[in-house]
């Protein structure tokens, strides 16, 4: 019993130390907040069927814009640059349903784009009117920021997974040891 508890505690501590060391040694590679910009739409319009249209004027941003990134949940997406479609996320048939699902949309922008239009159509009435946050900048920079933002939840999830795995293995061993002890007692 004491041995198994020691193994569990050691594993959890080792996982936490590894994640801490990874964050410390990759801190210099962290994306600065200056390269990440929240992009605010110039105009937002909502139609009766729930479709939301966001219009962006990208000339007001001084930095080089390589991508626009945003999160969608059960929504169809169309992105237009200068009136020409550059990105589409539509329904997908799968065993889970017929919606695009939950996804981060990384849209690479042409270098000469001034005007951008994003149309978001809900697949269900329940997902209509969700708040959207748009980020502009380099695609990899935005990805690294989003990854760093999600790291605490990831660490907690790993710890919970390790504890659950330990409990499962411990109970399996205890059941088999108890069964063997009962069989040797009978004989």
Apparent shape = elongated
Q: What is the tally of helical segments?
A: 2
The quaternary structure here is single chain
Order of helices and strands: HEEEEEEEEEH
Number-wise, the strands total: 9
Helix content: 25-40%
Main sheet characteristics? 5 strands, antiparallel
Termini separation comes to 26 Å
What number is the mean pLDDT?
A: 80
Structural class: alpha+beta
Rg from C-alpha positions? 25 Å
Q: Could you give the order of strands across the largest sheet?
A: 2-3-8-5-6
Beta-strand residue percentage = 25-35%
Descriptive overview:
The protein has helices at residues 2-25, 139-186, and strands spanning 37-39, 43-46, 52-57, 67-73, 75-81, 84-89, 102-108, 115-122, 134-137. The strands form two sheets. Strands 2-3-8-5-6 form a five-stranded antiparallel β-sheet, with no helix packed on it. A four-stranded antiparallel β-sheet has the order 1-9-4-7. Mean pLDDT is 80; it is low at 30-34. Helix 1 (2-25) packs antiparallel against helix 2. 39% of the residues lie in helices and 28% in strands. It is an alpha+beta fold and 187 residues long. The protein is built from two helices and nine strands; from the N terminus they run H-E-E-E-E-E-E-E-E-E-H.
């Amino acid at each position: 019993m004491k041995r198994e508890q020691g193994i569990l505690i050691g594993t959890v501590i080792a996982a936490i130390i590894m994640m801490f060391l990874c964050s410390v040694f990759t801190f210099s590679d962290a994306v600065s907040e200056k390269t990440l910009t929240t992009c605010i739409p110039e105009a937002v319009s909502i139609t009766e069927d729930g479709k939301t249209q966001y219009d962006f004027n990208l000339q007001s941003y001084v930095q080089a814009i390589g991508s626009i990134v945003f999160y969608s949940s059960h929504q169809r997406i169309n992105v237009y640059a200068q009136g020409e479609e550059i990105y589409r996320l539509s329904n997908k048939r799968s065993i889970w349903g017929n919606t695009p699902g939950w996804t981060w949309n990384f849209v690479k922008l042409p270098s000469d784009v001034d005007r951008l239009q994003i149309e978001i159509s809900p697949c269900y009435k329940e997902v209509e009117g969700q708040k959207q946050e748009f980020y502009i900048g380099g695609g990899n920079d935005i990805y690294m920021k989003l990854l760093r933002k999600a790291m605490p939840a990831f660490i907690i999830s790993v710890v919970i997974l390790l504890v659950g795995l330990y409990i499962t293995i411990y109970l399996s061993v205890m059941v088999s040891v108890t069964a063997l002890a009962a069989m040797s007692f009978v004989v």
